[in-house]
Amino acid sequence: MAQLSVENVTLSFGGINALNGVDVVVEPGELVSVIGPNGAGKTSLLNCISGFYHPTHGRITFEGHDLTHASPHTITGYGVARAFQNIELFGGVSVLENLMLARHTYLKYSIGAASVFYGSARRVEVENRRVVEDVIDFMELEPYRKALVGNLPYGVRKRVEVARALSLEPKLLLLDEPMAGMTLEEKEDMVRFILDILAERGTTVILIEHDLGVVMDISDRVYVLDFGMVIATGKPEDVAENPAVIEAYVGGAG
Question: How many domains does the chain have?
């Protein structure tokens, strides 16, 4: 059974379809990339999966849970986390605090226990801190753990964005252009982290990325969107030779 199934999803804004009858299937442990020209509907697809938008038509399921009209909080509880294209971090607090804030959904103790920081509150806090410290180590953020996020270089902040999503211990990680604006060296590091997330954590990844070289190198399968529709899907080498994909990216000869 597929881990994630997007079935005939349409997303409309007024008379405009951002997505039009989109079907996507993702198996556990896969790295599936979604590519396409600007405005093709890639981020809209992630918005529907993560609950930021609700499809006008169609159905989205994840491990048997219906995500179609679920709230982002509920979807996070099912094991779906997202790193945003535009960095959505708290710049005035540290890396450690940003990652701990991501764990708020797991902070389940009473106001009384929190006020004295004893018993269940202490146990839950210690466990959440353990998870966050593991992610900091995994993403090689130790030198920055107490630094204010707003003072960090752009490439490091992008890494913190991914780390915050990982702090939720997701089964499915949605990455929206995690390498946008990075130097070549920073991109190589991010690719390494993504492959480690797959190999060491067993996390399924859906990746939106404009660097087609990266997509073709690391993806198990690729979906190509254009004008809100899937125009091709398959292994990277097959998609790269698809005439419809070439047409979408470079236009026709005439």
Answer: 2
Q: Assess whether 132 and 211 both reside in one domain.
A: no
pTM: 0.89
pLDDT tier, 102 (very low <50, low <70, confident <90, very high otherwise) = confident
Q: What is the DSSP string of 207-225?
A: EE-S-HHHHHHH-SEEEEE
Give Cβ neighbours of residue 205 (< 8 Å, ≥ 6 apart): 30, 31, 32, 172, 173, 175, 194, 197, 198
pLDDT digits (tens, 9 = 90+) for 195-207: 999 999 999 999 9
Which domain covers residue 2, as residue numbers? Answer: 1-79+171-254
CATH number at residue 180: 3.40.50.300
**Token reading at 125:** 């806090």
User: For residue 122, is it within any domain?
Assistant: yes
